[in-house]
Amino acid sequence: MFTPRFYFHIRNDLTADDEEGVELADETAAKEHALEGARSLVCASIHEHGSVNLDHRIEVTNDQHQRVLTLTFREAFTITN
User: Fold this and answer.
1) What are phi and psi of 4, to 5 degrees?
2) Contacts of 41 (CB under 8 A, 6+ apart)
3) Model pLDDT, residue 1
4) How buried is residue 60: exposed, middle or buried, by Cβ count under 10 Å (0-12/13-18/19+)?
5) Which of 8, 13, 52, 61 could be stapled to 45 by a disulfide with Cβ–Cβ 3.0 to 4.6 Å?
6) To 10 degrees, the CA torsion angle through 56, 62, 64, 68?
7) pLDDT at 13
8) pLDDT per residue over 49-61, tens digit each?
C-alpha cells in the first residue's frame, strides 16, 4: 500500500526547505504534523528571542510538490485571558 510523503517547508526569518519529507496517512495527518511543528517553533522563538512573528508559516507540499496546506504560526494556537 502506498503511503504519501509530505514536505514541511519553514518560512520564517529564514527559508528552510524540507528535502526528506515524512510519510503520513493523509492530509489530515499532515496538518497535525504541521501544527506540532509550528507550536514547537513558536515556543523556541519565544524562548530564544522573547518574541514571535505570527505571520511566519509552514508550507506543506505533497509528492508532486503541490502545496496542500499553508499554516501560519497564528493558526497553531489560541490565546486566552
Assistant:
1) -70, 155
2) 10, 12, 56, 58, 73
3) 76
4) buried
5) 52
6) -60
7) 82
8) 999 999 999 999 9
